[in-house]
Amino acid sequence: MKYDTIKWGDSCALLLDQTLLPSRCVYVKCRDEKDIYSAIRDMKIRGAPAIGIAGAFGVYLGVRKSPARDAGSLIKRVKKACRYLAASRPTARNLFWALERMEQKAMSMKAEPVEKIKEALYREASAILKEDKLISKAIGANGRPLIKKDAVVMTYCNAGGLATGGYGTALGVIFSSKEKIKRVYACETRPLLQGARLTVWELALRRVPVTLICDNMAASVMARGKIDAVVVGADRIAANGDTANKIGTYNLAILARYHKVPFYVAAPLSTFDLSISDGSGIPIEERQAGEVKKIGGRLITVKGVDVENPAFDVTPRDFITAIITEKGIIKTPGRANIKKISQLNRR
Amino acid sequence: MKYDTIKWGDSCALLLDQTLLPSRCVYVKCRDEKDIYSAIRDMKIRGAPAIGIAGAFGVYLGVRKSPARDAGSLIKRVKKACRYLAASRPTARNLFWALERMEQKAMSMKAEPVEKIKEALYREASAILKEDKLISKAIGANGRPLIKKDAVVMTYCNAGGLATGGYGTALGVIFSSKEKIKRVYACETRPLLQGARLTVWELALRRVPVTLICDNMAASVMARGKIDAVVVGADRIAANGDTANKIGTYNLAILARYHKVPFYVAAPLSTFDLSISDGSGIPIEERQAGEVKKIGGRLITVKGVDVENPAFDVTPRDFITAIITEKGIIKTPGRANIKKISQLNRR
Q1: What are B68-79's pLDDT values in tens digits?
Q2: pTM of this structure
Q3: What b-and-e string marks burial along A309-325, b requiring 16 or more CB atoms within 10 Å of the CB?
Q4: Looking at beta carbons, which residues of chain A come within 8 Å of B18?
Q5: Backbone dihedral region for residue B241 (phi beyond 0: left; psi -120 to 50: alpha; all else: beta)
Q6: Which one of A20, A250, A300, B99 has the lowest number of neighbouring Cβ atoms within 10 Å?
Q7: What whole-number distance in Å separates Cα of residue A322 and Cα of residue A325?
Q8: How far is A49 from chain B (nearest CA, A)?
Q9: What pLDDT is stored for residue A344 in this prediction?
């Protein structure tokens, strides 16, 4: 089976609704920036690179039918759409990176006719999507040497084709090392079960042997000496290498450290945020209590109970063996090597 | 609201069905040893001390209507019932402890008439239940000095009144320190959600402020400096102090160690198994894949995926700050102090 995380469909963006997977494969039609905003907020599309791509198409959808007659007016609408879409989710860097890129594209065309700018914005969003697929492949190829023969790899949440334009970051590393990989342990990833629902689905589609476990079983599996490496994605990486990723990643990093299992982060350079010095500056989204209290619409606890539901946590760089990017591997991440590799991303 | 985990009801044992809590409060009638076996296996009753009590009543139910005419024949039936019930779940020591106690009671009455032995078995099971409530209270009282003023305490799974004859081990410590406790963080405890369903329910009933989190959020909460102590129960404690408890306890112990949070185990002496030298000898129950793959009967992943579902893990003694028992606190648990305190349990 072939699927697209996001694609352009005539006059709308089509997003594979990830809240319904794996039981149903339904594409959501996004006709304007509001549809994109809702899809990101409600996590119909999720994964840092994927929401970046969705955001880019959101900007185009937001101005596509704009009655603006001159470049100045259109650029104002572009900026407005960017501000609006930036409020959909706060943590993943890639969303802001993509919105900034769209805005810059528009700004660079101040002297051009409106229709030409609109067309350029469509092409820019399409380029971000296309490039992202190539970036995933490059991350996969760069990560390959880190995976040894007959490796058993643990992954967390979903950093696969569904989290990107296709292929994936952490799963990209796994897919590109497929013949060396004996088995993948997928942590289910509460509360929204992206591991159980999405990662297991992607691995099964590509016929990679996979074992599903609950998040709290990771230490027990590691203690039995089963795991050779952990590979996860990232939502934002600070200048010093501290990494925000799906809640529970920090748990897993501590467990990996204790069991002497290498812990790899796979992410495109668009995930790096050099404006943030360390992890303490990364905004962490707090999501609705209902995501924890209900599963499949069914209450699993006492109705009025207090809940904390941070969507992300921050793994200090000391726990990260290496960060795998499309431009190479950053071993023992720190300010110097992150700055150096980030400069390769200037276009 | 007042509830009983298990009580005798005329001609049957009544067990509060813990698979239905907190949405429904239903008592299951157990009329023979098979009903008790199923209730333990299906976790309608769970928690190490509670399944010990259920097992004891199971022995009585197994011989209550026996046509045996002499003590020898009846004792044979008692032994058979014990062997049968011992196969219901393999990890919690308390079940075997209770079955051994019932068997010894019968064996000590070889010269007595059948009806008198039957009556003694009923009294023995009732005594185990009654004593267990007192033991919980003693554990609570002994743990009190470990809880500081305005403490925020994290607990895992359910080691409350529902896991015992009443009151609880880990929750016993919390209840007996109630006025000192600012808040309890309850980890939901996948796959069967005993934290979300049972611990939150018990804490809410006793008006202890409680915050529910997913298991993978524990490190994030600890990193924010919120947790003063972790208190958990136990299913079996080896001679050296290594402790089997609900899967995920070992995860949490590693996280607590890293964040310098004291990690307390609260358990009656009937949980200790001096015949097992260390944690590697504790049998760990592997339960059905369906418990992980389905929530509320609904499939949450790809149908045919492989699953591991160990019901327990083993926390090495080095992670345990102290074990709180009914006879006192064992600080930095080891062979010597465990042997010493266990001798106090001889009756």
Answers
A1: 999 999 999 999
A2: 0.97
A3: bbbbbbbbbebbbbbbb
A4: none
A5: left
A6: A20
A7: 10
A8: 23
A9: 87
